[in-house]
Design brief:
By secondary structure, this protein is of the alpha+beta class. Strands 3-4-9-6-8-7 form a 6-stranded mixed barrel. Strand 7 and strand 8 form a beta hairpin. The protein is elongated, with a radius of gyration of 34 Å.
């Protein structure tokens, strides 16, 4: 009799064992398929989160590496090097900045309400001024914390112009708006230059809360086109240098490629600097995704392995119970490989049916269970973010166990939704796993038994 026909008759005649094997395979298939679907869904959600944040790489001083003479020395990098990095095809936009004191002149008055203008040590008319290439790439603007109320941002096309962004409270106090002029004096010396107001922005921080980096009233913070501001304070003829830069990449997946390319292009110019991606926002958004992926993967492996052990025991028991059948067939001249093929075919038929059945309901089941798990994880993550408290005024918070670097990133809410889709590739992967398990569980006990000759099989007790 054809071994394929024998396999079908065998499955039909042993309905109870066939059903038990089918149920075992079905559990394995459902768990493996659910794990694969959650992995794919969370990976897609993570990619979307990364793209929504944008691939931003910051070039800044490496505090772990830069020290000299017992104190930290801020490194500088030529803008020509930064421009070469910004010219990479991986980069969409880039910006760099340099800080110095600007002295307002010509009757313009700084906002005195709140933080004392002299408290920052910049003199009665001095304030923090940041020369930037592209103000839209500043973290506060990218996160939405600062809003441009009128005018426009400073761009790379304005590099050598004399343009300013001013805060609305300073603009309101002095009756200034886009197109008006402000005279700035150099940090040292008597040089002055007229700057045109390009735009007015809004900083939501109160005037009583000093800027944590510069110690000034936030209303007095100025942003200037980098070339024009640097020229005002230039003391030499060497190339312009800056202390930090930001690169916005075309594709979020190019972070590591850009880091490698930056090292090749800039070489030793990067000494003392660190290239850090904006992965804090990404980690904040994708934390719940990573958690449910780990949970689903662990459950998949545990139940999958347990099911595999049960299946192996069932197959081994079935092979031993069919010793007489195998002995008779071998004595009648049946080939050994056909007996093994028959056993494998029975398992493959059950496995294919189990995988097919699992594909009918696992997608909906996984969507429901995965969404429920993610919703709880996202709610816990949001509660943790909402409960964060900044350090007390005038304190770093480290002594109290509160780190300012743990401040939540704005507009980076934890992802709380996934979309599960059953793709052919996922089904094929589960099918391959199921068939592999079934064939392995079949081949090992069958091959061991069929190494014996027919007389030994028929005469040896079970």
């Amino acid at each position: 009799m054809n071994f394929v026909k024998r396999a079908g008759l065998s499955l039909w005649s042993r309905k109870g064992k066939t059903l038990l094997t089918l149920c075992t395979f079905l559990v394995i298939s459902v768990m493996v398929l659910a794990g694969v679907l959650i992995r794919d869904a969370t990976a897609q959600a993570r990619r979307e989160a990364v793209r929504s944040v944008g691939a931003e790489v910051n070039l800044a001083m490496d505090l772990r590496d830069v020290s000299a003479g017992g104190g930290f020395v801020a490194p500088r990098i030529d803008v020509t090097v930064v421009d070469r990095l910004g010219a990479s095809p991986l980069v969409q936009k880039y910006s760099y900045s340099t800080f110095d004191r600007g002295v307002v002149k010509g009757g313009v008055e700084l906002v005195a309400e709140g933080v004392d203008v002299s408290a920052a040590g910049m003199g009665p008319d001095g304030t923090a001024t940041l020369g930037v290439l592209d103000s839209a790439l500043l973290p506060a603007f990218r996160s939405g914390a600062f809003k441009l109320l009128s005018g426009r941002h400073l761009t790379a096309a304005d590099k050598d112009e004399r343009l300013l962004l001013i805060e609305e409270r300073l603009a309101r106090k002095n009756g200034l708006g886009p197109g008006d002029r402000i005279t700035l004096g150099a940090n040292e010396g008597k040089a002055t230059a007229d700057f045109t107001v390009a735009g007015v922005y809004q900083d939501p921080r109160p005037g009583s809360e000093p800027d944590p980096e510069y110690g000034i009233n936030p209303a007095n913070m100025l942003y200037a086109s980098v070339g024009g501001f640097t020229a005002l304070n230039s003391t030499g003829t060497g190339p312009q240098q800056v202390g930090q830069a930001t690169f916005l990449l075309e594709d979020a997946d190019d972070l590591e490629r850009f880091k490698a390319e930056a090292g090749r292009i800039a070489g030793s110019a990067l000494d003392g600097f660190a290239l850090d991606a904006n992965d804090k926002a990404i980690r904040q958004m994708t934390g719940p995704l990573d958690s449910i992926t780990s949970t689903a993967t662990l459950a998949m492996w545990l139940i999958g392995l347990a099911g595999t052990v049960v299946l192996a025991l069932l197959v081994d028991l079935a092979v031993k119970q069919r010793r007489k059948e195998y002995g008779v067939l071998l004595a009648m001249g049946e080939k050994t490989w056909k007996l093994i093929a028959q056993q494998a075919l029975e398992i493959v038929a059950v496995a294919v049916l189990a995988v097919g059945l699992s594909s009918l309901f696992t997608e909906g089941l996984t969507q429901s269970v995965g969404q429920s798990l993610l919703g709880r994880e996202a709610a816990d993550a949001r509660h943790e973010l909402d409960s964060w408290q900044p350090p007390a005024k005038g304190s770093t918070g480290l002594a109290d166990g509160s780190d300012p670097d743990d401040r939540p990133v704005e507009n980076a809410d934890p992802v709380d939704r996934i979309t599960v889709r059953l793709e052919p590739a996922a089904l094929a992967a589960v099918g391959a796993v199921g068939l592999g398990i079934g064939l392995l569980a079949t081949a090992v006990p069958a091959a061991f038994l069929l190494r014996l000759n027919p007389r030994t099989i028929l005469t040896k007790g079970k």
